[in-house]
Amino acid sequence: MSTLDPASPPTGELPFFVYGTLLPGEPNHDLFLRGRTSGERAAVLHRALLYDGPGYPYAIDGHGRVHGTLLTAAPGVYEELLGLLDHLEEYLGPGHPRNLYERVVREIELPGEERAGKGQPEEGTPEEGAPGAGTVRAWVYLAAAAVTRSLRTGGSVIDGGRWVTRRPPGGPRTP
């Protein structure tokens, strides 16, 4: 499974996987990320489902995949960016009862990348588009436990795992 041991804190500065209003072109991208990232690239979170929310999506563990963007913090702003994103996602700490999201470490696929030193996938190795084809560890904000329970019983899964705002093209953007 792609879940890493939450009791084992990551070392170093991990990138962030985003899949909603923080995506390029979405309302919170410029508000929270402008000037704070040194890299942004398409990425996929496997073994997850995407649910529609009240103007933003929720990802939860499940049998699917979520498309998004992997963000790398610009030099010198990692702690600032981590604090901003924790605040935006209403993350107060591991397992806090008022969390809207939990910040967890997951393996994120970078489409089009192969494992280092390998050409075409060999027998018994992941194929292109499968978890492990080229992966990195990253922070992901998943729906907190209470939100996840509610989504599983009455939420709307977003087919294909791609979230886009429901605003008309060229229309006004609000946070």
UniProtKB/TrEMBL annotation:
Gene3D superfamilies from the entry? Gamma-glutamyl cyclotransferase-like
Domain Gamma-glutamylcyclotransferase AIG2-like intervals? 16-163
Q: Where is the composition biased (Basic and acidic residues)?
A: 112-121
Q: Which parts of the sequence are annotated with region: Disordered?
A: 112-132, 154-175
Q: Name one GO molecular function term.
A: transferase activity
Q: Which key words tag this protein in UniProt? A: Transferase
- Highest taxon in the source lineage: Bacteria
Pfam family for this entry, one: GGACT
What this protein is called in its record is Gamma-glutamylcyclotransferase
User: Which organism does this sequence originate in?
Assistant: Streptomyces microflavus
